[in-house]
Every structure is written in C-alpha cells, then in structure tokens.
Design brief:
mainly alpha, 16 helices
Length: about 375
C-alpha cells in the first residue's frame, strides 16, 4: 500500500527537479539517477537502467517518462500520477509566463547568461551519470562493442528505433549463436528504414481547441527522439500544412522548451498559449504528455518478466547499452554547444571534480552555474 510519506517524497523531489532540471532529457536522467540511486537508494543501477531502456521503447518524452516510471516503482499508480505531474507542473507555469510576455511584448526574454553557466555544469552531471550507468550496463566485450557502435551510429544520424532494435537483436544473436537471425533482421531493418517522402499542400484549417488538443495527443502518441525531431513534426503541420505558426514563432517555441527547466516537450505549452491562451496551453500540455502516463502504466509491469527470460533478457541488455549510446551521442552534441570558451571549459572541469569528490546535490551545482553565468555575462 502506498504511504502518504512516499507520495510526499515523490512530490517534493519531482517539483524540485521540475524547477532545476535544465539541459534536456540526458541531463534530467542524470539528475534523477543521482537522486533515486545514489542519494535515496530507491532503485539499483540495474533497475534504473531497465527503466531507462523501457522509456526508449515507447513514444513520448524520455525524461518525463523516466519520472513517471520512478513514481510508479516507488508509489504505484498514485506515485505515477504524482511524480509525472509534479515534474511537468513547474516548467508548465514557467513557460506559460514566458509565452504571456512573448505575446505581450513580442520577444523572448534574454536567457543567454543563464545557459552560459548552466550548460557546462549539465555536461559534467550527464558525463558522471553515463560513467556510473555504463559500469553497470557493460557486462562484457559484447555489450561494450554494442555500446560503442551505438554511439557511432547515433552520431551518424541512424534512426533511434532501428538502432535500439538492432542492438537488442545483435545481443540476442551473440548469446544464442544464430547468425542467420541476424542476417534476416538486418535485411528487415534496412527495408523498414526506407521512408517515402510525401509532399503536402497547404490547406486552410482554422485553429480550434479541439484540433489543437488532438494534434498534440497524436504527437505525444507517436513521437520518438529529441526536441529536434519534435521540431520536424511541428513544422510539417503547424507551419507548412495549416499555417498556424510562422517559422520564427516555431523556432522561438522550441527554444523556450529547451532553455527552460523540465521537459523539452513544454514547447507544446508555448504553442498552445500562442494559439489558444491559457486554455490552449493547458490542453496542448495535457495532449502531448498524457500518452506517456498510459504507456508507462502498461509497460512497467512487464519489465521483470522480460528480464527473467533468457531471450528477452538478452534483448533488454542490448537495448540498455544502446540507450546509453544514444544518451552519449546527445551529450556530445550538447557539449559542443555548451563548452565554447575557456570559462565554460573551466566550469565543466570544476563541476566534474566537485561531483567526483564531494558528491553534492546536483541541483546546487546547477544553481551555482547559473550564478557564475550571470556574473561572467555582465550581471555584475
């Protein structure tokens, strides 16, 4: 039976993460690991990795689904609702405030100083999480090789779903020794990866709250990948087909989703406010996040059964290391944008040393990075 204390703990943790978790899904997952594995001992690294692999197998925002998974593991269905909602609520309110200012004054608030100091700290947090998770996930030469190949393929732009499927099947073939299965799978993946481009013409579709909600419900139900993948989905319909947004408005929406704390998918909140005010923001947010709650509730009870089977256990091991490969590739891209000069390199190095030696709460490091960024970028 779920206790009020455990629900209160979940609410407190994920409200705080919703306010301080900058840097995108990889950074959020690193901060969650620090809290639920290192500090609280709610999960082991193996359990955390299994949940991480599960988030990559279902559509929706990975870090939000990770919060929902942790809540479900800790507090059942009430914990699922509490953790996910508390992680989403603070960024929702922040983004609505920014959207209000955007509509009123016609521009986005200046946040360059904030991300200048926060981004290098985020890289250090993610790198530490990758290192520690990798020590649990890499169980021998085969998993190490699959992990390295996953990083290379992810950096080369290989489709995320195909990469996860390939990693799981390669691990299965390695364990069971059936090369014919691997050959057939590679052919199937190659055939399935071919996507035919379709041109769509613009049509006059008026904005309604129903259409807005259904659109984001669809996106939350089918979208895999990062915020950049989200941008492609949004542009196809909202800009090209329906003309609801200009390109600049769409870019601003994605930017706000990336520089504010919490899920990048709060881009939907910003767009919802532009198109439908407070009600539109609320409905768009519910639409894009609701499928994740359902997918987690359905998938998590199956994880122990999958892990217990030799076949699905091998598949899961492959998916786990491939998930870390995807996370490492994202971290590489983030690092190239975050570490741009000597001060940011110094911040990343100092944050790494502090994490390895003092093991502070990562939220304090993020806030310290914001202060340093403010000082270096003209605040004082």
């Amino acid at each position: 039976m779920t206790s009020r204390g455990s629900l209160a703990e979940l609410a407190g943790l994920f409200l705080r993460l919703g306010i301080t978790a900058f840097g995108g899904p990889a950074a959020h997952i690193g901060m969650m690991r620090d809290e639920v594995v290192e500090r609280r001992g709610w999960l082991t690294d193996t359990e955390f990795l299994d949940l991480l692999a599960a988030t990559h197998l279902i559509p929706g925002p990975n870090s939000t689904e990770m919060a929902i998974h942790v809540g479900y593991k800790r507090g059942g269905l009430p914990g699922l609702l509490v953790a996910g909602s508390c992680f989403i609520l603070p960024p929702f309110l922040i983004v609505v405030g920014i959207a209000w200012a955007y509509v009123r004054y016609g521009d986005t608030p200046q946040v360059g100083w904030l991300m200048y100091g926060v981004s290098p700290v985020i890289i250090a947090i993610v790198a530490q999480a990758l290192w520690k998770l990798g020590r649990s996930a890499v169980k021998g030469p085969a998993t190490a090789l699959i992990g390295m190949l996953s990083i290379g393929l992810a950096l080369a732009g290989f489709n995320e779903l195909a990469l996860l499927a390939l990693a799981g099947i390669v691990m299965l073939v390695t364990r069971l020794g059936h090369p014919g299965i691997l050959t057939a799978t590679l052919i199937a993946l190659s055939a399935g990866g071919t996507v035919l481009a379709q041109t769509t013409s613009a049509v006059d579709v008026p904005v309604t709250l129903t259409r807005l909600t259904l659109f984001f419900l669809k996106v939350g139900s089918i979208l895999f990948g990062s915020g950049y993948v989200l941008l492609a989905f949004l542009r196809a319909d909202l800009t090209d087909r329906w003309g609801w947004l200009t390109d600049q408005q769409l870019i601003d929406a994605v930017t706000v989703g990336q520089v504010t704390p919490g899920p990048v998918f709060t881009t939907a909140t910003f767009i919802g406010y532009l198109l439908g005010g407070w009600i539109g923001a609320t409905l768009a947010t519910i639409g894009i996040f609701a499928p994740g709650f359902l997918f987690v509730a359905v998938s998590q009870p199956l994880i122990p059964k999958l892990r217990a089977s030799a076949i699905t256990g091998a598949l899961l091991d492959g998916v786990v290391v491939a998930s870390l490969g995807l996370m490492a590739a994202v971290t590489w891209h983030l690092a190239r944008s975050a570490i741009v000069d000597v001060p940011t390199l110094g911040l990343a190095v100092v944050a790494s040393v502090i994490l390895l030696t003092l093991r502070p709460n990562s939220a304090w490091l993020v806030l310290s990075g914001a202060v340093v960024g403010w000082i270096l970028q003209g605040g004082i």
